[in-house]
Design a protein that fits this description.
The protein has helices at 22-33, 36-48, 55-81, 88-95, 99-134, 144-155, 175-221, 235-243, 252-256, 259-272, 279-284, 294-324, 326-330, 337-347, 353-387, 391-411, 417-456, 466-492, 496-503, 505-542. The chain has 544 residues and is an all-alpha fold. It has a single domain (36-542), classed as Amino acid/polyamine transporter I, CATH 1.20.1740. It is globular.
């Protein structure tokens, strides 16, 4: 496939947005990666798969999948940005003007926008819990069932529409109210633009997040043995439960033989580094032509890994082990059990538990906002450059679309069926397809040699040429293998996945809604392509 026919978009805006500082873009990309999964999902997976054993496939996936895809996205983003494009749809077509790129551009809008619709809802839970800790509203004693009952009532697990109702007789304590606060904050920041909104917030939010986590970490590591009647539940055993490679009657090699562990380790790296969303592509497009991207991408990945392994991995599971024992951790009742049911119970076992509870959920809230902001920017970029809209109109359109989606998620809250359906089709299927397309586009269309020239221009470190082979062959094969194994597990080994969609009305409604959003972005992207082609033709006509 040839790349000789490259689209270049004439500048249509007086001033092209750029990042203000290098540290700003690193903080923004790191903030995009650091999210709820660092402090909740990663510790849960590490404990589930014997800690030390889990780190083997985790680190292999980081080297062969995570970092290579990050370099791919940073390189293609800056390449497209130098040609006048900031949206993933425009960048893909700048590299390969093909209907396939147009379809991938639609997917690059659908993935982050739909994930935002339910991610911002979970973000609002974090804000609600943080505020309730400050106001003394999370003091339910030491009975685990009370925390479970509160969470079920707060998010509406038992009945559709319950999340709109007052909690504790206080309407502004409802989940819908906190969702409104988070929604307004996100769109206020995105309206302020790249430097004054995203970069400004991430530059102070990320250090604040790390400080909060370090304070909690010090407290966790000094817990000792809180209950002398249970001497086995001490902090050293808690750390051992998290990191020892053979804690559950398995040898190290037996643990490594579990294919499901390899699948989930790759998935965690995939989501943790925020690769495959089309977000980094957009962020990198705002860089200047000779700005370093090699070291910046490694720095962002290192910051994410520090938050995930050194902070998330040392706080959540050891603290829960010390106070509640291993049985609570090994058998969670749901996706959010650890974070919103188990940990609040843990904090109420601590002296000054209200303070540490506030700090923990506040840092989760900050991590969630830095991630949710990044999910909005790709669509804003498309509306601005594809339709020629101003910031205000772009923000208004996107806020309406995402508000409808979020309200849909909040209303159909029973069993979190809609949220799970969105996550299944967009956060899993769509994400894997988009990441695979990006790797192939970089390695086989742009060309791995040409792509590495882009990566190394202005670089402050040299990326080993070995990674050319990795990106061209190993990464796409790794992605296809992981996606194939996931599809086998979900569709062949567990046929009830599709049965649930066919028989569950809420799941059917969710799929229909996804199709409507996909149709909306298809229209937007196709209109953008026509506009870019007209501009290209005009540019050729006026050229001497």
């Amino acid at each position: 496939m040839s790349t000789s026919s490259v689209i270049t978009q004439p500048r249509t805006r007086a001033v092209k947005e750029t990042w203000g500082t290098r540290i700003g873009v690193i903080m923004a990309v790191t903030g995009s990666a650091v999210g709820l999964g660092n402090f909740l999902r990663f510790p849960g997976l590490a404990a589930k798969y014997d800690g030390g054993a889990f780190m083997v496939p985790y680190l292999i996936a980081l080297v062969l999948l995570g970092l290579p895809i990050a370099w791919v996205e940073w390189s293609m983003g800056r390449y497209g940005g130098s040609r006048g494009f900031n949206s993933a749809a425009g960048i893909y077509r700048a590299i390969w003007p093909s209907p396939v790129s147009t379809a991938a551009g639609v997917l690059a809008m659908l993935v982050p926008v739909v994930i935002y619709m339910y991610y911002v809802y979970v973000e609002s839970w974090c804000l609600a819990y943080a505020i309730r800790y400050l106001l003394g509203g999370m003091n339910f004693g030491l009975d685990p069932s009370r925390y479970e009952a509160f969470f079920a009532e707060f998010v509406g697990l038992t009945e559709n529409g319950l999340a709109f109702r007052a909690v504790d007789g206080w309407w502004i304590g409802s989940a819908a109210f906190f969702l409104l606060l988070c929604f307004l904050l996100n769109f206020y920041l995105i309206y302020r633009g790249l430097q004054k909104g995203i970069e400004w917030f991430c530059t102070w939010a990320m250090p604040t997040l790390v400080i909060c986590a370090l304070i909690i970490l010090v407290r966790v590591l000094t817990l000792g043995t809180p209950d002398p009647s249970k001497p086995e539940q001490n902090i050293l055993n808690g750390l051992g439960f998290m990191w020892n490679p053979a804690t559950k009657s398995k040898s190290f090699w037996e643990a490594l033989a579990n294919p499901q562990m390899w699948l989930e380790a790759a998935g965690q790296i995939f989501f943790s580094l925020s690769v495959g969303f089309g977000i980094i592509v957009t962020y990198a497009s705002y860089l200047k032509r000779d700005d370093d991207i090699a070291l910046s991408s490694v720095t962002s990945a290192a910051g994410n890994e520090f938050c995930e392994v050194a902070l998330g991995g040392l706080i959540t599971i050891p603290a829960a082990f010390v106070f509640l024992g291993p049985q609570v951790i090994e058998n969670p009742k749901g996706t959010f059990e650890l974070g919103f049911v188990t940990l609040p119970n843990v904090f109420n076992h601590m002296v000054f538990g209200w303070l540490f509870g506030f700090l923990f959920f506040f840092l989760l809230f900050l991590a969630a906002v830095t991630s949710s902001l990044s999910m909005l920017q790709p669509a804003i970029a498309l509306l601005e450059e594809g339709l020629g809209l101003g910031r205000r109109a772009s923000v208004a359109i996107l806020s309406f679309v995402t508000a409808v989606g979020s309200l849909f998620v909040v209303y159909f809250s029973q069993g979190l069926v809609v949220m799970d359906t969105f996550d299944f089709w967009v956060g899993n299927v769509g994400l894997y397809i988009l990441a695979t397309f990006q790797v192939i586009l970089f390695a086989w269309v742009l060309g791995v040699d040409r792509g590495f020239e882009e990566l190394q221009r202005g670089a402050e470190i040299k990326i080993p040429n070995f990674f050319k082979f990795v990106i061209k062959y190993i990464s796409p094969l790794y992605l296809l293998a992981v996606f194939g194994a996931w599809c086998y597990q979900e569709f062949w080994a567990n046929p009830q996945t599709l049965t649930k969609i066919i028989r569950e009305p809420a799941a059917q409604a969710a799929v229909l809604f996804l199709l409507l959003v996909a149709a909306f972005f298809t229209l937007i992207v196709n209109q953008s392509v026509r506009r870019w082609e007209r501009m290209k033709k005009l540019q050729q006509e006026v050229a001497p």
